[in-house]
Design a protein that fits this description.
This protein has about 450 residues and is an all-alpha fold. Helices cover about 75% and strands about 0% of the residues. The radius of gyration is 23 Å and the shape is globular. It starts with a helix and ends with a helix.
Length: about 450
């Protein structure tokens, strides 16, 4: 029994890995493993029955009553309102008009729109489907290479996972007990740098292979006149100013800013005459369904991490990591490789809620000297994981952005076109990850400048 107690954390971790590869819902897997190993822990004496009764209190206090997590449903609702009221559609048409004569202008417009949507919503599924429906048919019709068109749409739609207000950053901040405003600010520059990588790649493709990204012809836009153009471009920026401006200016916390953004989205939809009972109900229904799925997994992950800690999982992971004698740099590289490989098979939700609590104790023991200050270490690491996790949306076989795109595109592109198209963008994401590891100031400079730390 003593031997079983020693190896119980390792068995529990392996059971989790095996369970994730089944076709069962992740929340069910987490809860099932928690119940089984909680029972074993009681038999081995690692847990007392009274500790098991504390799990519901932990779930209620850590999730249901958590004011930080209120931001998640509000940001999701804000993004869906923008989609339903077609504010995003007007934005893409306006960007197409501005970049009409530029080689690769439509692809550049899609990437810029993805960047703006990321700073206004942070909802990946909605962004990818929206860009696919609005832009992909036009890109194919104007002679764009199907692979470049698919890769541009998929990568631009996933920028919302990194650029605040990202729902993923909300959950990461809560899991790692970080200052959410500081985490949002730390993610801002890396998100823009990654978007810049995409833009440079598209320009180079249009320059060296113009047949893959031809110029647009006149008369292809439905927006006419500078007044309508300014309105189409200005409305999304008002939402960005309302959300990020209130956070960066210290006027509101990220939780409060999520409410400001939701109200701003409703107001702009009303002013455009497109907010009615049907669109409001549709946005509310989509928000409830999305957040219910996220919180179902969150409940399972909270219960799992509680039992895992009670059986000595945290000590087991730290001891196992340092026994590898890889050094701090080796451990960092190993964790980044693990996240990248898991991204081939799992969504960011599973990876974040399961791996971050395991990695956090290791990161707290790491020391990179003058390369990055100890106080900034956990924020730097969180952004590295966020950039890494963005690849999970694009890497086959389970890249969710690929499924969203393929489902919305119909017969416009084949799955082979999609896979060929995303390869350069995944490589660009990995190049950005290496850059942020090499130059941590890209991550930590802006929080210091804004917050005065």
């Amino acid at each position: 029994m003593e031997y079983l107690s020693e190896i119980l954390p390792g068995i529990m971790f392996l059971a989790l890995v095996a369970g994730l590869f089944t076709s069962l819902p992740v929340g069910i897997v987490l809860m099932g493993i928690t119940l089984v190993f909680g029972g074993i822990a009681i038999l081995t004496g690692d847990m007392r029955f009274v500790q098991v009764t504390l799990i519901p209190n932990r779930i209620y206090g850590g999730i249901i009553e958590n004011p930080v997590l209120v931001a998640a449903p509000m940001f999701i609702f804000m993004g869906l309102v923008m989609e339903k009221t077609r504010v995003a559609e007007d934005l893409l048409i306006a960007l197409q008009k501005l970049l009409r004569v530029v080689p690769g202008g439509l692809a550049l417009a899609v990437t810029l729109m993805g960047t703006i949507l990321a700073a206004a919503t942070g909802i990946i599924g909605a962004s990818v489907v929206m860009l696919t429906v609005l832009a992909l048919p036009t890109m194919i019709r104007r002679g764009y290479a199907p692979s470049l068109a698919a890769g541009t749409v998929a990568s631009a739609g996933t920028l919302g996972i990194l650029i605040p207000p990202s729902v993923m950053l909300v959950f990461m901040g809560d899991l790692l007990t970080l200052n959410l405003a500081k985490l949002f600010i730390a993610a801002f520059l890396p998100g823009l740098v990654l978007a810049g990588f995409y833009l440079v790649y598209i320009v180079l493709m249009a320059w060296f292979k113009p047949s893959a990204a031809p110029r647009a012809e006149k008369g292809t836009e439905t927006i006419s006149g500078w007044g309508e153009l300014i309105v189409a471009l200005g409305l999304p920026f008002l939402i960005i100013v309302a959300v990020l401006g209130s956070i960066l200016g210290g006027i509101a916390t990220p939780t409060e800013a999520s409410g400001v953004g939701a109200v701003a989205a409703l107001l702009l939809g009303f002013l455009r005459g497109r907010l009615n009972w049907k669109t409001l109900v549709s946005a509310l229904d989509g928000s409830v369904r999305t957040i219910a799925m996220l919180f179902f997994i969150f409940v399972g992950a909270t219960a799992f991490s509680y039992v895992f800690r009670q059986v000595g999982g945290e000590h087991f992971i730290v001891s196992a990591a340092h026994s590898l004698t890889l050094g701090d740099w080796g451990l960092l590289v190993m964790m980044m490789i693990m996240v990248f490989i898991m991204g081939f098979f799992f969504d960011w939700i599973e990876i974040t809620l399961i791996m971050l609590p395991i990695f956090a104790p290791i990161v707290k023991t790491m020391n990179f000297g003058d390369h990055v200050a100890q106080a900034d270490m956990i924020y730097w690491f969180a952004i590295l994981v966020a950039v890494n996790l963005q690849t999970s949306f694009l890497t086959p076989p389970f890249g969710f952005a690929l499924f969203y795109l393929r489902g919305a595109a119909g017969s416009l592109v084949t799955m082979a076109d999609v896979y060929r198209g995303i390869v350069p963008f995944v490589l660009l994401q990995l190049a950005a990850l290496i850059l942020f590891i090499w130059q941590p100031e890209i991550v930590v400079w802006l929080p210091k400048a804004v917050l005065g730390e």
